[in-house]
Amino acid sequence: MQQKNILFLFTDQQRHDTIEALGNPIIKTPTLNRLVENGIAFTRAYSPCPVCIPARYSLLTGLLPHRSNCVINERMPEGNKSFMELLSENGYQTHGVGKMHFNFPGKPNTELWGFESRDVSEEGGGRDDFKLFLENNGYEHVHDPHGVRSDYYYIPQPSQLPERLHHTTWVADRSIDFLERRDPSRPFMLMASFIKPHPPFETPTPWNKLYRGPEMPLPKRPQDSDGLISYWNRFQNRYKYRDQGVDDNLMRVMKAAYYSSISFIDYQIGRLLAYMEAHNLMDNTLIAFSSDHGEMLGDYNCVGKRNFLDSGARVPMIVVDPQGLRGVRCPKPVSLVDIMPTFLQAAGITTDINLSGTSLLDIASGAAEREWIACQYQRNEYGMYMAVSERFKYIYSAPDDKEWLFDLHVDPEETRNRAYNPMYLEITRGMKADLIRYYQGEGYTAPFDGDDWLRHPKQSIPEDPDAMLLFQDTPASIPNIPGYERDIRRLHAKTKFHVGF
Length: 501
Hints:
- By secondary structure, the protein is α/β, with parallel strands linked by helices.
- It has a single domain, classed as Alkaline Phosphatase, subunit A, CATH 3.40.720.10.
- It contains 13 helices and 19 strands.
- The strands form five sheets. Strands 5-4-7-1-9-11-2-12 form an eight-stranded mixed sheet, with helices on both faces. Strands 14-15-16-17 form a four-stranded antiparallel sheet, covered by helices on one side. A three-stranded mixed sheet has the order 10-3-13.
- A hairpin with a 4-residue loop joins strand 16 (392-397) and strand 17 (402-407).
- Helix 6 (167-181) packs parallel to helix 9 (248-278).
- The longest helix is centred in the middle third of the chain and has 31 residues, at 248-278.
- The protein starts with a strand and ends in a 48-residue tail after the last strand.
C-alpha cells in the first residue's frame, strides 16, 4: 500500500455552522465548500473536551480526556504518543505550522512532540517564529499581533497588521514554503494550524468589512435560555466581560467579525490547495479539516466555549480521501479522537495503543459502527459530562447538579431541556446509565457514587460584577513611560481557576 500524504487544516474556536455548503446562507467559504463537495462532511462532530489544551491533547493522542487526565487548560501529561510520532517513526516527514498550544511541564512551547520541524506561533507573550517575522518586517511595535485581549476580548477590532503580514496569511505562506522544500522521496504530514477565528475577532483590511453587523442575524435565544446554560457558561460570561447586559448591535458586529476571520482563513487555505494542485499533490493526499471547539457567539446570551451545547462543543469536520467517498454527509456522532486512527489508516500504520477513536473513513462507509460518543470537561465538583447519539444528547453538570436532555430530531436548535419531561425520563435514565457504565468499564470511577453521579455542593458566581474578571496582557503592551507607569501585577491577578487562553 502506498502511504498517502496528509494535510491537516485546523482552526481554533470555529463553530460547526460556519460553512456555506453545509447550510449557512450568509458566510462565504468557497474553499471549504469544495472540500465538502469532494469528500465527507461529518455533520455531528464534537470536541471531546471543549477548551483548547485538552481538545488538542485528545486530538493528537487519540485518547479521551478521562484516559489522558487532561480535562482543562492545564499542563499536558507526558508519556502518551502523538500521531506525529507514529507517522515520523514510519517514514513521514512531519511539519507543523501555527498554534499547537503544547504545554508540557518544564518544556518550551517549541517542543516538537513528533514533528520533525515546526514554524512556531502561539497567542501569549514571548518571541516565536511569527513575532520574529513581524520584527524583521518592521512591525515590532505591535504588542498584540493577534488582537487586544482582556477587557477588549469580545470587542471586534481591525487588525494592527496588513493582510500580507497577518498570522492567517503567515500560516499559509509557511505551509507552502514547507511543501516547496520538503523531501519528495518521503510522504509528508503537514498540520496547518490557524489561531483564528479565536477571539479577539480581528481581521486585516479590507476583510474586516466583508460582513456588516446590521445584516447579521441575532444570536439564538430560546424562551428558557437561562435554564439551558450551566455554571460554566456563567463563569465564562463573567471573566470575559459579557455578563453585564446584552448589546444587540455589538452582538451582530461580533458575528460579522467572526465570519470575516473564517472567510479569510478559507481564502488562505485556497492558496495552499492551489499550490498543491499546481504541483500534482492532490491525487495522493488525504485532507482533513476541523477545529478544537466552538464559540457561543451570543447564543443563550453567552460567549466562549466550555460547555456541551452545540454552539460551544460542535465543530466542523471534513475528510477528503482522493480515492474515497465524495459529496457525502455523515450524521454519525464523531469526535476529534477519530482523527488519529484516520491518519494511521491512510498511512497504513497499525498500533498497539488502545485508542479511543475509530477511523472516520470506516465510520462513514459503514465498516465501523458508531452509536454514540462520550465527552468531558473539568473534573470532580466542576466536572461536566456528555453522551450524544444521532438523536439524543445527555449532559450532566456537577457544579449545577443538573441534567439536560435534548431531542435533536424534534429540537435540533436545543431550545428545550427534556431531561425531566415524563415522556423522556426513560431516555434520560438510559443515556445516563450507558455513560456511567462506559466510564466504569474504562476504570474511571471518580465522578460516581456507585451507579449514580457523585453529588457536590452547587457552585455559584460572585454577585460583585467585577469579581473574577480575567486579564491576559503581555507585559510589553502595558505603558512603562515615566509618569505614566502601570503596576502590571494588578493586571495579572488570576481567577480561581486556571482557564488559559
